[in-house]
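re: ur msg from earlier - yeah i can do the NJP complex, just paste it... oh wait u already did. ok heres what im feeding in:
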Amino acid sequence: MNDLTDKVAIVTGASRGIGRAVSLLLAMQGAKVVSVARSADELDELVHKTNGLAIPADVSDETDVQNVVDETIRHYGQVDILVCNAGVGSFNLLENNAADEWDRMFDVNVKGTFLFCKFLAPHFKSRKSGHIVGITSDVARRTFEHGTVYGASKFAQDALLGSLRKEVRPHGVKVSTIYPGLVDTYFNESKPGSPDTEKTHLKPVDVAQAVRYILEAPAHVVIDELMLHPLTQEW
Ligand code: NJP
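and the outut:
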């Protein structure tokens, strides 16, 4: 088992939902967690519990992302783990999507993943270790009505991570992709914790446990892909 104690982990989209659960769980395993999102207040509250760093940033802004990576390396000397989790989505008939909704979903879901991987892949390759975990979606593997733009962005994020896996694997760097089904979070302006969604959705901690499982795999094992659903969700 790969011990996470003192591993330096950057987690994006950490202010709520899945990312927050991942930050908390990795901190509980002894990792030094750098939590990233735009909401500074939520990050301040989280950092009291993780004892790590909180760096407010927009994942689609190149300068912000470069700053997160530089600040993390300045503070901790290295990065071991990147969890690309920040994501947004809205669901509409194709013709009812404004062009700026396309930009918003592709900027956060695809460009955000691209920028963090771009700045960290050379660091990981030079150290011949490192683990990138991408939270995509089961909709990166299927299509559905009202999911044209979100689905396209998740297919794109998945393709980026799949190609990157092939580029970095010879350098001893792992890339793992998680495909969750419905998760009870604030996603798409949902309100988590209702009696209904508690029955029909995964909890954020379920996905966080999948991240932990992937990261704790022994050094010679890479879990390329992991899909998980609530038992009630047909796929
Ligand atoms: O959603 P939510 P989830 N820069 O809304 C952050 C995927 N997924 O936890 O910036 C930086 O509770 C935002 O922070 P803030 C989904 O596609 C979900 O469910 O402060 N951060 C917040 O921390 C996504 O990739 C379901 O607003 C930005 C976080 O992202 C991942 O799971 C199903 C940002 C979103 O938290 C986590 O989403 C599925 C930016 N520009 C896949 N924009 C599901 N929930 O059912 C947003 O298949 N964030």
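cool cool. The CA atoms of residues 178 and 226 lie 5 Å apart. ping me if u need the other ligands too
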